[in-house]
Amino acid sequence: MFAVENGLQGDPRLQAISDAIRVIPHFPKTGIMFQDITTLLLDPVAFKHVVDIFVDRYKHMNISLVAGVEARGFIFGSPIALAIGAKFVPLRKPGKLPGRVISEEYELEYGSDRLEMSVEAVKSHERAIVIDDLVATGGTLSASILLLERGGAEVVECACVVGLPIFKGQCRLKGKPLYVLVEPNQLDELTF
Amino acid sequence: MSENKEEEDPRINGIKTKIRVVPDFPKKGIMFQDITTVLLDPKAFKDTIDLFVERYRDKNISVVAGIEARGFLFGPPIALAIGAKFVPLRKPKKLPGETIFEEYELEYGSDRLEMHVGAVETGDRALVVDDLIATGGTLCAAINLLERVGAEVVECACVIELPELKGRQKLKGKPLCMLVEYR
């Protein structure tokens, strides 16, 4: 579900957010129009809009845990967690988290990768959200949902700044709703 | 914080007690300072950010540079609170646009830190943020990147310092602010 479909149609903050995201063609490989959120982070007003919109959505949903996917999910998830008084749980590439971890494999275009979470991160029945900068195939978010559920949490929603249009409407990942602010930009929409 | 030992802010002890020390990670002999347990305590996490924000909000900081990846946990909330840009300093090949890089020494070999061209400008006043300072190699690389594009590095801010590794001496004369020492 996109923000425009759920109460934020016409909200000028969404246009400001979209305008602040730079497109880098053919990164990391030919054919991919990479949505670069680092230019959004250079605009304190637009960056704050992102956090404010997510905070307004989640602050009354009794969320006690915000999980962020390494590394760009840390940048958005950490301020959201702080603002709603939730704990922050980093979901990381293998070997980065110390102590005991659980891991979940997910598919890449070629091969697979793993995401890890600390076993101490989740208490049973916690209400959690997962944050990342962008959702494309949903593979990483699906792995995140599985990790949190294995830890005993209830995943309430996944939230991303950018999402492919297929995530409009009632599209779900592993049965969980998805909340997205903007669609990907095309190349001619922003020059940096 | 690190300069006012006579009267330590009471929030600091609360943060210190939340840091988990994990022995022999990532390899034998290293007592790893795990800050993820601080993030699991909303009050301790908030206190950490508040202490830095209180220090920097009136210092006209225009850029907060955070070192991948744990610097991305503390840097962005500080940047947002003080109205500064956030600039991620990353391992090679992660940043999609044109970058400049700075090499730094590891125990065996070397690594690189990258920054996007155009993110930081001459005249920017910068803060560098990471979770911990050990040898100071990464922070030194960060300072170099920022100075090369004409920014003034005002200070480095870390949650934890390992003073025995003398990282402070690698900061090109820039001051360090830290909350917790581990000896």
UniProtKB/TrEMBL annotation, chain A:
Keywords: Cytoplasm, Glycosyltransferase, Purine salvage, Transferase
A single cellular component GO annotation: cytosol
Transmembrane region(s): none
Enzyme class: transferase
Molecular function terms from GO: adenine phosphoribosyltransferase activity
Single Gene Ontology BP annotation: AMP salvage
Protein name in UniProt: adenine phosphoribosyltransferase
Organism: Microthlaspi erraticum
TrEMBL record, chain B:
Highest taxon, organism lineage: Eukaryota
Enzyme class at the top of the EC tree: transferase
Assembly behavior: Homodimer.
Keywords: Cytoplasm, Glycosyltransferase, Purine salvage, Transferase
EC code(s) of this entry: 2.4.2.7
Identification of the protein by name: adenine phosphoribosyltransferase
Source lineage: Eukaryota, Viridiplantae, Streptophyta, Embryophyta, Tracheophyta
Family of the protein in this entry: Belongs to the purine/pyrimidine phosphoribosyltransferase family.
Organism field: Microthlaspi erraticum
